[in-house]
Amino acid sequence: MKSGKSRTGANPPELETIGADPERPNLNDPRAVLAVLETDQVVAQKSRTRFGRRKFSFALKALLWSLRAYVVLMLVIVVIAVFRALHALH
Amino acid sequence: MDSPKEKPAHPTYRPAHPTTQPAVSSSEAPGLIDQLTHEDVDRARDRWRVTRARLRERRSKLFGWLPLFWLLIGPGVLVFLGENDAPSMLSYSATGARFGVGFFIPFIVLTFVMGYVVQEMTVRLGAVTHRGHAELIFDRFGRFWGLFAMGDLILGNFLTLVTEFIGVRAGLSFFGIRPGIAVGGALVLVLVVITTGRYWTWERITLGLAIFNALFIPAAILAHPDWSAVGHALLTWTPLPGGNHYEILVLILSDIGATVTPWMLFFQQSAAVDKGMQPRDIRAGRFDTLLGASLASVFAIATVLATVPLFHHGIDASQFQTAEFAQALEPWIGHTGAALFALGIFEAGIVAAIAISTSSAYAFGEVLQTGHSLNRSLREAWPFYIVLLGSAGAAAALVLIPNVSLEFIVLTVNVIAVLAMPPALVFLLLLVNDRELMGEHVNGKWANIAGVTVTVLLICAGITFGIATVFPKWMGG
Question: So what's the ipTM on this one?
């Protein structure tokens, strides 16, 4: 990863690439916009590339399913708790 | 500059890996030059300011870091002060009124440590991948699991939003403001804040509102807390709470739910992306998150301390509505203290309403691949803003139904947030350990130990709650 500091201690490398003045950037120049954004930060680039699916091992699938069952079970228990509380109020 | 198509017909699927080089020096640069949007330019403007602040930081020995700090704080402070919301403050109030100073003071600090552990991971995910949490889950785990995660988020967010407007209504009722005006005014405020068309402006206005969470500090001071007892509780975790074990368990879960909830994961990652954070900002993002957690824990403890007089005078707060805490406190902390408390509840509700509805809108936009940035105007990203305002509007309307048991709703919503958290945490841990996605920024050993510990603790708390509900006699209920 780039550190953002040039070896000379002057402008960061992305600014030196386009010869930009960090004090007065001209954002009408598309290169000035692209100089400070990473490739994946540009909306057009993001919308045309997607991260691929990861592989699911059996253990991972089992974990995800058990957590799903946990949430469903817990929601049922919350419904029971709410029902009991309302019953107690009346 | 032309606007790119939102949904390319054939998106490129590529192995995930972080791309941290400036776009101008990438091979895609020539193709991107003609496709820059208003959103890109706004984000670039924010990045230029960060770049300039970094250069000045290097030149200045003393306080050179301050401008950079000012530019990079935001998502972390907002997420934690946003989570110090109306139901959280009610939960802390109920804790102080029911148990006084003791076990719950350090316990609340512990919940914020847990909150920091998980939120720090979202900073790294956002800064490295430049993708929101919902988008990453859909990309890496597929539509099937993504829809489950979204279902949990949307249900939790909507219920929580309802409780935020309960807080708004209740806080302003202390000043005699009618519910319709209070809730309607809050909705208008949400609208005004989001229509700035700039993430930066939205963030600063919301931060400005969020700092009023500190109103609970003068309220606590006016309650004249016993500071030595507070110090003793922090060091020894005593006295332990006594009485009905089921009630204690619900408050424990509710206090955890006041700090660690699914919307926070989605919100902070999306906000970090919208802010334009990059891997070199991760350190600042960590500080931002730590600052948010620290401020929020101080304000949370202040809320407990403000309501301790109710404990000392044996006042039963179990049936209190939110505003009734302020009214009940008036004899002990005075009208000013009570007014500060009520204003604090209002602030907690409004800031969280802004943050949570934004979190829902980000997630919808990411999943549907439509514009999802506060740097876009209402016209450019109308589906994003419709979800944002629609969710807030529907929640606000529900709150206007008379004779609803408000305190019961808010505690239940906090409990649901805790119960929905383990799957969200597992998705988070899987993503942040995904080396293809995160490169060198994957979780280290200790971050994984902390993350897994938090997840196991939440599952154990949930299972204990389940057992106590099904077999109440086991817990003395």
Answer: 0.80
